[in-house]
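User: Can you help me understand a structure? I only have the sequence.
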Amino acid sequence: MDRLRPFLDDLESRIDENEEQANLLAWLDFLEGRCREDVFTPPRRTPRPPRIDWPRISVNRAFEDCESMLLHQFAACSKLLADGGSLRLCVRCNYSTAILPSLFGCGLFMMDEALDTLPTAIPLGSADRVRALLDRGVPDVSTGLGGKVFAAAEMFLDVMRRYERIGRHVALYHPDVQGPIDVAEVVWGSDIFYAFYDETELLRDFLELVTQTYTAFMRRWYALVPPAQAFSTHWGFMHRGRLMLREDSLMNLSPELYVEFIRPLDQRLFDEFGGGAIHFCGRGDHYIAPMSEMRGLYAVNLSQPHLNDMETICRHTVDRGIVLIGMSPEWVRQAGRPLLGRVQC
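Assistant: Let's start by predicting it. Here is the structure, written out as tokens:
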């Protein structure tokens, strides 16, 4: 911890309590339907540059030890304060989308150091290896990258106990455990899409195992990092509920397959953990209607609005009281319709 102390002292000294409280209250007004503008833009902070030089920690180096991971994450908070940004201060145990796949024995594919990009998991690649996973049951959530996640979380919590302002105003949000279909695809490999027709029972059994593993992992997470309120922070955005489910793989499925195979599992997770938000890349306008019917879906984050019919998206989100978070200024300017105070930009 001695290595981190000068940087934590610097970060602590630059957090303005009044500005953080004003930023938080603005977000809560938005999420509780009290935004008076058509589009919500959080209040910016007064820029506060660091008083010391923060080192650059690459993604690969952050994987090497917990102190490097903490420094990597708190450096992002330092930059947000220096820039006078409007997003929430937050950190996570940033061990990539491979966290849950690693519990099933998937290896890591580390990217070249120069790319400074998170690794991915290497799929097992066969139905026979998936059947072997079913025989083993739910894996120990402390294996694979799970051990790194929980060790880093304990160090984050220790910092937050030692530093009052960091503890009050920097959120430790849940790691990137994706969602059942995304994890299943990464572990099985792209042949999983044939399984929706050729190996239906095996697919159902494997999705069930992945959902049980997700549940066990998140129960362990929230036992260690109890939720402080009914709202969560993710990527600097806030949303009601506990989970941020990732549904990137859904772009490959029809609405009918989504409703039959995936939505019931996502609904179980929302019911278990108090609802939350869904993120997806690519196109999602073909399944947004049944998705919007889920209990506990309070927010949607989509990264590529230009690939979607956004009128369809808006009809099934903002028009139904589900907020859109993390939308680009470019899309907002071109929306051409009322956004009802339910879009954050």
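Now, to help you interpret it: The first strand starts at residue 90 and ends at 91. Residues 200-224 form the longest helix (25 residues). Let me know which part you'd like to focus on.
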